[in-house]
């Protein structure tokens, strides 16, 4: 009897928990299904934003789940083509096998890139925890030799980011500049916002001066965005701003109004909790959005 009561209690708690997560996530995540992401992308396109769909998942150690992710990315590409969306894709290397086997991951990435090429679609590789940094950069440099349609994220909290940037630009890389979102050791990353921002600005100036191809300024930071606007007037580069779904929607519209290209990163899938917690940690006032969504 006790067991039955406990099991009913657990089921109720799980349901409440799932509903809570769904509420937290609603602002930042398009939904659980691909159709939700497609709908969100249509909305983004309708206000002049380019969509960047991401299927949530990382650190995958199960080969069947990896295979499922590769299949899902192909389905996203089919749907983007079918719906004629202005949209690219962003994926994580450990979602397609990097945490299991480097060669397998590289093959999966090539399979997705080949598929995307047939639709003339672009794939971004997110940057994850620093333990994968070297491997992701090397894999990127190798695939970039054969594929035009691939870009890579670089995090300004990495102390050695300027070295990686130079190495990547030598390989003709298409860079998305971010600040970085993972918990890391102080020997590898800058911990103070001031240092992370300074490194970001240094890398961004280098990109405006030296990048001969497209790049992306991925931040919601108004000061950095203003600086990028000024740099774009001095150096005529092809670049876009990128921001996450549900964050600074007002600023996205302003930038589109000024004629800048703006991409919106649109995550979907079942792994909503980890993603939402990351957003709350970055900007604790987001917790108020959660409270507002509950009360
Ligand atoms: C398109 C895109 C792709 C990304 N890809 C990666 C990746 O591959 N790897 C990785 O490690 N990280 C990635 N990130 C996350 C990034 O590293 C940061 O964690 C995140 O963007 C927050 O940093 P920020 O640049 O906006 O600046 P912050 O210094 O965090 O914030 C500066 C200002 O921006 C506004 N702001 C920032 N965050 C929020 C928020 N959540 N809610 C409301 N306002 C906010 C506020 O005005 C704040 O003062 C990506 C971010 C974007 C936009």
Put simply, the count of helices is 11
Strand tally is 8
Would you identify the CATH architecture? Alpha-Beta Barrel
Please trace the helix and strand order, writing H or E for each element. Answer: HHEHEHEHEHEHEHEHEHH
Output the CATH topology.
TIM Barrel
Read across the widest sheet, the strand sequence of neighbours is 1-2-3-4-5-6-7-8
Hetero ligands? flavin-adenine dinucleotide
Content of β-strand = 5-15%
CATH classification, class level? Alpha Beta
Question: Mean pLDDT, nearest integer?
Answer: 91
Low-confidence stretches: 1-5
Measured as a percent range, the helix fraction is 40-55%
Structural class: alpha/beta
Apparent shape: globular
Q: Any idea how many domains? A: 1
Gap between N and C termini: 35 Å
Radius of gyration: 19 Å
Main sheet specs: 8 strands, parallel, barrel
Describe this structure in words.
By secondary structure, this protein is an alpha/beta fold. The protein has one domain: TIM Barrel. It has 11 helices and 8 strands. It has helices spanning 2-26, 34-46, 63-82, 102-118, 133-146, 161-170, 193-210, 222-234, 249-257, 272-282, 286-294; strands at 50-55, 87-91, 123-125, 150-155, 175-178, 215-218, 239-244, 262-268. Strands 1-2-3-4-5-6-7-8 form an 8-stranded parallel beta barrel, surrounded by 7 helices. β4 (150-155), α6 and β5 form a beta-alpha-beta unit. Bound molecules: flavin-adenine dinucleotide (FAD). The site of flavin-adenine dinucleotide (FAD) has 24 residues, from β4, β7 and α10. The site of flavin-adenine dinucleotide has 24 residues, from β4, β7 and α10.
């Amino acid at each position: 009897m006790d067991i039955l009561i406990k099991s009913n209690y657990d089921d109720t708690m799980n349901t409440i928990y799932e509903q809570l997560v769904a509420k937290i996530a609603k602002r930042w995540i398009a939904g659980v299904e691909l159709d939700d992401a497609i709908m969100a992308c249509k909305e983004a396109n309708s206000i002049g934003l380019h969509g960047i769909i991401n299927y949530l998942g990382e650190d995958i150690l199960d080969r069947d789940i990896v295979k499922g992710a590769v299949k899902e990315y192909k389905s996203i590409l089919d749907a983007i083509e079918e719906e004629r969306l202005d949209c690219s894709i962003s994926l994580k290397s450990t979602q397609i096998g990097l945490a299991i086997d480097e060669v397998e991951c590289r093959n999966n990435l090539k399979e997705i890139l080949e598929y995307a090429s047939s639709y003339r679609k672009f794939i971004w590789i997110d940057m994850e925890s620093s333990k994968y940094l070297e491997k992701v950069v090397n894999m990127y440099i190798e695939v970039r030799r054969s594929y035009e349609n691939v870009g890579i994220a670089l995090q300004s909290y990495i102390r050695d980011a300027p070295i990686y940037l130079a190495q990547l630009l030598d390989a003709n890389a298409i860079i998305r500049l971010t600040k970085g979102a993972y918990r890391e050791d102080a020997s590898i990353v800058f911990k103070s916002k001031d240092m992370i921002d300074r490194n970001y600005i240094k890398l961004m100036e280098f990109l405006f001066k030296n990048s001969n191809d497209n790049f992306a300024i991925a931040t919601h930071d108004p000061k950095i965005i203003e600086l990028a606007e000024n740099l774009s007037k001095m150096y005529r580069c092809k670049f876009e701003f990128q921001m996450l779904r549900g964050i600074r929607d007002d600023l996205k519209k302003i930038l589109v109004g000024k004629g800048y290209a703006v991409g919106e990163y649109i995550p979907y899938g079942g792994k909503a909790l980890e993603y939402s917690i990351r957003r709350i940690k970055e900007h604790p006032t987001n917790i108020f959005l959660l409270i507002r969504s509950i009360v």
